[in-house]
Amino acid sequence: MKYLQTVGLVSICLLLALGRSASAASSADILGQSPDSHWRTVDPQHTYVMQLTDKRMVLIELAPAFAPRHAAQIAALVKSGWYDGLAIVRVNDNYVTQWGDAEGTKPLPDGLSRTLPAEFELPRVPADLPFNAVPGRDAYAPEAGFAQGWPVGRQSARGPAWLAHCYGMVGAGRDSAPDSGGAGELYAVIGHSPRHLDRNITVVGRVLLGMEYLAALPRGDDAMGFYATPAQRVPILSARLLSQLPDAGRPVVQVLRTDSSSYARWLEARRNRTDSWFVRPAGAIDLCNAMPPVRLR
Q1: How many angstroms from the chain centroid is the CA of residue 256?
Q2: Which residues, including other chains, have CB under 8 Å from residue 129's CB and lie 6 or more apart?
């Protein structure tokens, strides 16, 4: 089994009960001891593989619970093969890698619109997604934590909630008008988390595997990191939902459940590092530093 570190607490009481035993174990030990029930398998209908050149593959999970219209449209475009032959058009250092229809001229399948209503936030975290708070203050939200593995800021338990721009999160590009975005231009965060974008752009998902391919691309030399010529762009050979792949070739990807005791222990171990290299454990952690681990079965 392969664990991939990518970038909520069950309860404060649970952490206090775990006490010193939680921080004594290493992060790797905790993941190795975690039962299968503490991991969720990503939905093949809402997860797709984008294949670049040289067998570089990027796996992206969509977030229909937070951006239902965008997630549905992206899934429909992937299923139709619309992204095939498009390209990565922008790599802005310490910011984003962007891909899609740069000229905005490729026809969309029947019934799909080039722009969608903004889905910047929800009235509240969906009732079927437990919210697990990360301890400490957040600079951009009164409360911050995770809902089914998604990094979330929220006003309160009854107030608006939104996905956070952490490393590896995927958003839908837009122009000045809030409703000018869609599924034609997507980006992944490749630098320091630009949380100032929260609630200003629709966040549609997260890169689970293959971030190294998006983050290591040559930077664009034109304004905002765009490639100056089409020849510099990185082709997208294909994009396919996991549900479109044959069973024998379909990867089984799992994310550590953020409402599990394993995640609570893992988070506490990362907040208070006890291995000998650390002179002063931080005793704190940032939301985007607490993204739940991913594993490939």
Answers
A1: 13
A2: 65, 147, 148, 150
Residue with tokens 């595997």: 209
Q: What is the DSSP letter of 226?
A: B
Question: What three-state secondary structure class fits 190?
Answer: coil
CA–CA separation, 86 and 77 (whole Å)? 12
Domains of the chain, earliest start first: 42-251 (2.40.100.10)
Task: Output the pLDDT for position 283.
Answer: 87
Tell me the C-alpha distance between 272 and 254, whole Å: 25
Average pLDDT along the chain, 297 residues, taken 10 residues at a time: 44 37 73 97 98 94 98 98 98 98 92 95 94 95 97 96 98 96 96 98 98 98 97 97 94 97 95 86 93 95
Beta bridge partners of 5: none
Q: Are 27 and 171 in contact (CB under 8 A)?
A: no
What residues contact residue 278 under an 8 Å CB cut-off, 6+ apart?
none
**Cα–Cα dist 106/75, whole Å:** 17
What is the bridge-based pairing of β-strands 185-189 and 169-172? antiparallel
Contact status, residue 86 vs residue 99, Cβ threshold 8 Å: yes
For residue 106, the number of C-alpha atoms closer than 13 Å in the C-beta half-sphere is: 16
| β 203-209/57-62 pair status | antiparallel
What the block records as the tokens of 32 is 């190795």
| Residue whose C-alpha is closest to residue 150's, from 79, 279, 255 | 255
CA distance 177 to 196: 17
